[in-house]
Amino acid sequence: MTGHPLLSQLSEIDQHRFWEYGRGPRTVVPFECVHHAFEHHAQANPHLTALEEFDTKISYRELDNRANCLATHLRGLGVDVGSRVCLLVERTPRLVVGILGIVKAGASYVPLDGNVVSDGTLHHAIRDSTPTVVLTLRKFQHRLADTSSKVVYLDDVLCSDYDPGHCIKPQDSATKSDSVYIVYTSGTTGTPKGVDVTHGNVTNLLCLAPGNLGMKPGMRVAQIMNISFDLAAWEILGAMMNGATLCLRGKTSKEWRAVMRSVDILISTPSMLTPHKPADYPNLKTVAVAGEPCPKATADSWGAHVNFYNCCGPTEVTIVNTMQHHTPGDTITIGGPTPNNSVYVLDENMSPVPIGEPGLMWAGGACVTKGYLNLPDKTAERYIPDPFANDGSMMFNTGDLGRWHMNGTLIPLGRIDNQVKVKGFRVELDGVAAAIESCPGVQVATALLIDEELWGFATPSSLDVESAKAAALKVQPYYAVPTRFLTMDEFPKTANGKTDKRVLRQMAIDTRDREQVSVAKEPALNEPNPIIPSATLQITPSLLHRTSDNSLGSTTTAVGSDVKQIDSSASSALEKEQYIWSGYEDDEYPEKIHGPIIRNLRHRIFSLYRRLFSVVFIINIALLIWILVTKDYDANRLGGIVVANVFIGILMRQEAVINILFAIFTGIPSSWPLAIRRVAARIYTIGGIHSGAGVSGFFWLVAFTAQATKEMMNRGKTSVRTVAVTYVILAEFLGILIFAYPALRKKLHDTFEMTHRFLGWTALALVWVQFISLTIDYMPEGQTLGQTLVKSPYFWLVIILTVSIIWPWLRLRKVDVRSEVLSKHAVRFWFDYGVTPPAGSSVRLSDAPLKEWHGFATIPMPNRSGYSVVVSRAGDWTSKQIDNPPTKIWVKGVPTYGVLKLVPMFRSMVLVATGSGIGPCAPIIFEKKIPMRVLWTAPNVRQTFGDTLCDSILEAVPDAVIYDTRKHGKPDLVKLVLKLVKEFNPEAVAIISNQPLTEKVVYACMSRGIPAFGAIWDS
Questions:
Q1: For tag attachment on the chain, is the N or C end more exposed, with fewer CB atoms within 10 Å?
Q2: What are the AMP-dependent synthetase/ligase domain coordinates in residue numbering (predicted)?
Q3: Domain 906-1019 class?
């Protein structure tokens, strides 16, 4: 094969290695179709356990019969070879029955996890795949209300009698070229693309070593991956096609770990595996990771205990197409091609590069799938005929750069496309280059991501690099500004005149390697350090090489083999690396986007709350000026203005009004521009209107009192009784305002509650007395009191505000409560009295309704009626509930929306909670409406809040960061939040915490251009 015309530019030895390294072993696949392999084991070992979910065990014979029943039913609905069936289920035995029943019917399945998949992806997958049937569970019925496809419920169609006589296998006409499943993957475009995978693709990987990972009868395989991902097909189909036992993990972390401890084979992503210690899972024999780069420390750690495979391959080449059996201490690579597959490393002209040179990796052979569903242009772009096989087969452009190691394994070098991730943020490299070129004096620039570092290249060589950085920073966010630069007089060119980025990449690597050699030769720590010009390179000498993992936000540490000693500080850092937040203290704060004066004016002094307050107050000032100019200010007119302000102030605190306003403003679709959504989301600052109207009303009341007194003294219309009542109201309003002052309210909360309630009620009664008295004083001759009141708009305002105050009390009730004591610091109350509140709402509770009320966030549970609240020890009342949990408690009004109602407005979010702040966050987390990262800091988390709540949160967000402050000390919350923001790239941040931390985090984010939201305490 050395004489192939496409290899003529290679040396004879490289031509030989091109085939030796690039072609996997040629092996006969024992089965054509997935279900043929399964049926072989069902007949050979019918009594062996095929499927296990804790105490539930299903044999191969029973599973085969169930699948035959379902296949027969589907055939009756028109499902056959070439059909597609959407499988909207969850991780239960019915998932496996559904998969096998669909493929036995001849169709391909489209796996979608009903608990995880977004509405957008679900509806797109159904529209795009045009399924003959949507196979689902009754619990997901509501998610399919708008579909026009035929919906069949597994709950209804699975036989209760699995006698083989009732479950005849339908006629089998599927071949290896027929589709077996469609997996939707977004790639880098964000639009889900359906990858069409055939039986032959799957059997080639899973029926042969090493892709079968040693699966065989008697071996136990964990099923832990999201069922919508192709790694789940490796677990499920791999076990079924090799006669192994598939063990389904549960919903809690405890159940997850229990399954991992019981199995022989585990398939995972590196991020999921890294937090676990090999010593905790002595039964594991084989572990395979894929889906993202694997840190060497992880590979070395697990490789010392199990058969560890580091694998690679996009969905388009059937799960993985390269595998490396890793030996601790060896260079970590992705291995070579699996059997009957090929990998070619080519240049931009589609010619093979010399062995060891970087190039674009193309995949050929039996792994190459059919293409993208309904995307012929995209398929033609990425799938082309394989010129090296020259047998009509196709090869696929993986979009990944790589090079061959001299031992015949592949070293990945990152993505070739210009859209990359830097510190968790998606960055367009062309945009970075354009930003550099905005600097005067730059002739041409480009940018490359090399080993997770952003490099800038520019001409001429005399360029001032710091000026180029400053210019780029004016255009791009901090993370999209290169941290390292190379300048030169002229860029290298390809044969067709384009910038040769391959050469630039190698230049950067060579420069870095030379610098590392310089670092290795540094003098002892007590000697002066050499000075390295920051204009060219920014490298900090360190014994620890740190690589950032975008998926989990973890930092892993590999210690170079040439390092003989590690000082105490390095050992400490290494020790901390087991936690996913490790190293965050060393992060530098990102630059703020405005000067200190503008920042403080915008985000502190003139917050939106205070701006709303000011608007109301300024309107009242304008009204005052108008009245003074027109001299139209008798007591009747001033009294009306008082009523109008009090009306607005009270209405802004009325439950129904709050819920309506929140529903309108937070109902804005997430497709709207972020600039609009980030403003609308601050609807929770309407307290500024309440406070503005309240304070304005008080000053108008003072003016009214003065005018009424003047009129009474001058024997005008205002009577003595009106003035007397007015002075009492004034005194009560003054008392309400004094105790409502934030600092005093916080210090004397119980006193505030009692005075606010007592003075508010009595003031309301006196307002009616005053209003009627004033109306009588100014009643026109010839009119009755009733006629005058009906014509007065202020009369109707007083009625409305009175009803708004009374209305919550009309819904006062004493209800049953089930108390779950979580610890001596917290209790969870469970309610089910016919109210299931929406996520992001709160209720008020009391055991003495005339004395005090306390607000708590509701935690509705998915698919359950009622709700719960978490009460943590924070004062006498909460301590009483924890020490003596009640069986009945008072509730009032309706659940009212709070700040977290804004979460679904955004496409992604970092959600932060400290202590019992997890209560308001929990229902938002459980809803799983948007992608989010969760950060929860609290002391003794599990001991304080219990396993149930913690496990529920981890089930909903497996990569949630739970930081135990008792164990790790108080964190720098701002740095920790900004670390998550860098890694996750959310649209916004929301925090539920105490006042100082909330204000600190919100300001830190907002001043850096990150929308952030948190409760306010001004009103």
A1: N
A2: 38-373
A3: alpha beta
Spans of all domains in the chain: 418-519+531-561, 612-810, 812-897, 906-1019
| Alpha helices, DSSP H, located in 263-355 | 270-273, 296-303
Q: Which two tokens stand for residue 904?
A: 């679904």
CA distance 881 to 263: 44
Do 110 and 131 touch, CB atoms closer than 8 A?
A: yes
Q: Is the pLDDT of residue 539 over 50?
A: no
Gap between the Cα atoms of 990 and 986, Å rounded: 11
Query: Cα angle at 296 between 277 and 402, to 5 degrees?
Result: 140
Taking the C-alpha atoms of residue 342 and residue 347, their distance in angstroms, rounded to an integer, is: 16
Name the band, by pLDDT with cuts 50, 70 and 90, for residue 179.
Answer: very high
Long-range contacts of 432-437 (CB under 8 A, 24+ apart): 432/456, 432/472, 432/476, 432/480, 432/481, 432/482, 434/475, 435/471, 435/472, 435/474, 435/475, 435/476, 435/480, 435/481, 436/468, 436/471, 436/472, 436/482
Does residue 304 carry a pLDDT above 80?
yes
pLDDT at 60: 97
Q: Which residues have CB under 8 Å from 855's CB, separation 6+? A: 842, 843, 844, 845
Q: Measuring CA to CA, how many Å separate 780 from each of 123, 178, 663, 785?
A: 66, 91, 44, 9
Closest among 335, 455, 330 to 402, alpha carbons compared: 335
What CATH architecture applies to the domain 812-897? Beta Barrel (2.40)
- 3-class DSSP assignment, residue 433: helix
Place of tokens 């009626």: 865
What is the edge-to-edge ordering of all strands in the sheet holding 826-831? 818-823, 826-831, 867-872
Q: Which residue has the higher pLDDT, 342 or 634?
A: 342
Residue 152: its H or E element = strand 150-153
Contact (Cβ atoms closer than 8 angstroms) between residue 994 and residue 578: no
* Long-range contacts, 505-508 (Cβ 8 Å, 24+): 505/358, 505/413, 505/448, 505/450, 506/358, 508/448, 508/450, 508/455, 508/457, 508/484
pLDDT-derived band at 755, boundaries 50, 70, 90: confident
**CATH no., domain 418-519+531-561:** 3.30.300.30
What's the start-to-end Cα distance of the chain, in Å? 81
Q: In one letter, which amino acid is 907?
A: R
47-51, 58-62, 551-555: segment of lowest average pLDDT: 551-555
What distance in Å separates the CA atoms of residue 402 and residue 68, rounded to the nearest whole number? 45
The model's pTM is: 0.49
CB 688 within 8 A of CB 1019: yes
